[in-house]
């Protein structure tokens, strides 16, 4: 639902497809993980251009195929993960270096602004809007982090102090990206089965969570970063909804009174008492409807390996889930893998339904704007006991994407169903909140105060359009819903 650099998606998905055919499950997962953050460009033309992509595909496909076969074998050892991007053993990373050099601008304050600064901390704010040197693309790779960050060695050296603030993180990104393509064995993508009912999950942080969920010991920082990058999606949802959630009504617990009301309703359904159901006639019980989680503006998260989403259901062993991915980009460039079905009277929106992934998980994907489906009453009726909206980095307040949410947000408020939202950075999150408040004003109740997400991705990502801009998946989380008015009877008031 927001602009993105679709050339990545295309390249990424082709690689995924190639690996799925050629490689093992592990390398398949690893390549899935190689998905980059959705980059939001301020420039025109970097947005959705599906048709343009189609034209280049056949030639690229052949190229990708060759690349995949050469990347399938281990090419990097753990002590040899650092490579300047342009000299990387991975052709994909070399191409990325070329892309950065073609698109990103030198942050040195002697240059003129190439765009409006996004916020006061944006390095672009140090430049003057007129005069100075013309904007120049980056071409010099910092020897310490290996990322193209300046137009020349002079500018890099001159502005070294400000680069130093992010150099270590950039180096970590460099090594993590090479690690993913190293072809090593990835035990961190081996997921545990159903939780034993007697064993409590501790959701204080990633360590306690992974330990109590019986994950294979992940004692290496890098493996932890790679693992959390995928798990952040299901676990962020689970950590808010679960009765053992670390977000509480206590002081500084971030949950509001309205939040507690809404979550209590959901938890009533998510943690039902044992009902004595069994396989025999005696054990027959009416099954409650599945918990519906609508993931709007879905993009990368809709193509996560299903094992990752199954982890959500393992946190709530007694209920079934129906995940509904909605958004024009929810199948972006995956048409070769999942051809979109025809739109027929019985399936008017061409939903892709993955029926029983497990006995407690079903996934449907709608390549469509949510507001269209809402207007058609497609998911109606909504039930605050069984429904929840999830918006992963929606960019509600981002100048390039907020217009796409304009129609959707009032509809979400109307349902009175909780809406959970994440952001890439504090700034990204606060901009979203400000936009919502400005757009719908008093019509919303805050359910959860904004703050850092305990289950954010520990891996940092780089915006290829601007290497100064680093962020991580689901950095922050907050929640709101449509304002509920207490009903009062007229005669009672008198
Ligand atoms: Zn420069
Ligand atoms: Zn550096």
Automatic annotation (TrEMBL):
It holds the Pfam family zf-Mss51. GO terms for biological process: mitochondrial respiratory chain complex IV assembly. Residues 274-463 form the Mitochondrial splicing suppressor 51-like C-terminal domain. Residues 106-180 form the Mitochondrial splicing suppressor 51 zinc-finger domain. InterPro entries: Mss51-like_C, Mss51_Znf. One of its GO terms (cellular component) is mitochondrion. Residues 107-131 are annotated as: Disordered. This is Protein MSS51, mitochondrial. It comes from Lachnellula hyalina. The gene is MSS51_1.
């Amino acid at each position: 639902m927001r602009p993105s650099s679709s050339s990545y998606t295309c390249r990424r998905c082709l690689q995924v497809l190639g690996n799925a055919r050629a490689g093992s499950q592990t390398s398949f997962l690893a390549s899935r993980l190689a998905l980059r953050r959705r980059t939001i460009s301020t420039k025109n033309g970097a947005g959705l251009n599906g048709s343009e992509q189609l034209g280049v595909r056949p030639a690229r496909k052949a190229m990708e195929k060759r690349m995949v076969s050469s990347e399938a074998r281990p090419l990097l050892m753990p002590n040899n993960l650092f490579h300047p991007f342009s000299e990387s053993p991975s052709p994909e990373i070399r191409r990325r270096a070329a892309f950065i050099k073609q698109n990103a601008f030198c942050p040195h304050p002697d240059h003129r602004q190439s765009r409006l600064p996004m916020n006061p901390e944006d390095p672009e704010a140090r430049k003057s809007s007129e005069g100075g040197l013309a904007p120049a693309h980056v071409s010099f790779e910092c020897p310490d982090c290996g990322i193209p960050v300046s137009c020349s060695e002079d500018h890099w050296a001159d502005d070294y102090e400000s680069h130093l603030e992010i150099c270590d993180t950039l180096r970590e990104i460099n090594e993590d990206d090479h690690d993913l393509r190293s072809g090593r064995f990835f035990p961190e993508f081996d997921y545990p089965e159903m939780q034993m009912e007697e064993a409590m999950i501790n959701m204080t942080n990633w360590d306690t969570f992974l330990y109590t969920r019986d994950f294979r010991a992940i004692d290496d920082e890098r493996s932890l970063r790679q693992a959390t990058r995928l798990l952040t999606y299901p676990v962020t949802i689970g950590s808010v909804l679960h009765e053992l959630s670390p977000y509480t009504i206590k002081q500084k617990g971030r949950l509001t009174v309205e939040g507690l009301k809404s979550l209590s309703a959901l938890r009533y359904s998510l943690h039902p008492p044992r009902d004595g159901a069994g396989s025999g006639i005696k054990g027959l019980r009416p099954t409650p409807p599945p918990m519906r989680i609508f993931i709007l503006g879905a993009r990368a998260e809709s193509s996560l390996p299903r094992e990752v989403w199954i982890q959500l259901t393992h946190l709530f062993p007694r209920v079934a889930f129906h995940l509904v991915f909605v958004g024009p980009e929810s199948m972006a460039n995956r048409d070769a893998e999942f051809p979109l079905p025809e739109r027929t009277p019985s399936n008017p929106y061409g939903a892709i339904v993955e029926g029983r992934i497990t006995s407690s998980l079903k996934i449907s994907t709608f390549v469509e704007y949510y507001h269209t489906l809402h207007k058609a009453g497609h998911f109606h009726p909504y039930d605050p006991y069984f429904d929840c909206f999830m918006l992963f980095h929606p960019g509600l307040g981002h100048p390039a994407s907020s217009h796409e949410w304009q129609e959707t947000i009032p509809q979400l408020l109307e349902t009175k169903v909780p809406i959970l939202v994440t952001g890439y950075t504090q700034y990204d999150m606060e901009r979203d909140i400000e936009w919502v408040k400005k757009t719908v004003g008093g019509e919303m109740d805050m359910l959860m105060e904004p703050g850092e997400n305990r289950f954010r991705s520990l891996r940092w990502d780089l915006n290829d359009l601007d290497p100064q801009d680093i962020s991580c998946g689901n950095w922050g989380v907050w929640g709101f819903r449509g304002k509920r008015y207490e009903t009062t009877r007229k005669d009672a008031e008198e």
